[in-house]
Design a protein that fits this description.
With 224 residues, this protein is of the alpha/beta class. The protein is 41% helix and 23% strand. The protein has eight helices and twelve strands. It has a five-stranded parallel beta sheet, sandwiched between helices. The chain has a four-stranded antiparallel beta sheet with strand order 6-7-8-9, with helices on one face. Strand 4, helix 4 and strand 5 form a beta-alpha-beta unit. The two termini are 29 Å apart. The relative contact order is 0.12.
Amino acid sequence: MNILLAEDDVRLGELVVHMLKKKGGYQVDWVQEGGDAYDYAKSSHYDILILDWMMPGGDGTDVCRRLRKDGYSGAILMLTAKDTVEDRVEGLDAGADDYLVKPFELAELLARLRALTRRAYVPIVGDCVSLGSFELDRTNRVIRQREEEILLSPREFGLLDLLVQNKGQVLPRELILDRVWGYDADVSLKIVDATVKLLRKKLDVFGQQDVIQSIRGVGYKIED
């Protein structure tokens, strides 16, 4: 499961990221500003967003409202020290699916994430994107051409989905590495090239090997 954590408290952020990876086995991206949370959520696929209420660059409720207004349907958990009924109502009305008051036990955070995950297993209808002669099925994480399907690994899916969501834009290798593997991943940029190579091999089955274009010295893109 991929999670985006937006938390400006460095000490808390480091602790939550560590525990989510160690105890939950989750993939986690961590940002510290509201604007970055919005951009990451729009350009990458996450199963759950964890948004701190008070952040620089736009608080969690602002980010939540903007995403819901844009049609974002993923699960959102709000973290905050605000604990009045009015505050909880405001957070839920902004579009959050759940609300956790600080300070909290990490065991409760993990339990709430598991509960949100169970809700997220309801099938998403029509979550497919056409690209050339094939389509990317985000629900099942496969590429499909007529009756033939090819399963993608989590990294292959994350990379292709990132490119598809940013069609026409050149994405630098550094950005791809950050969004798909995480900012603290102990891997080199060569892993991006290796994953693109594997993706192209799978796309070649559909005659679409060249749909991912290499931009020499920069990164990759997909055109409309």
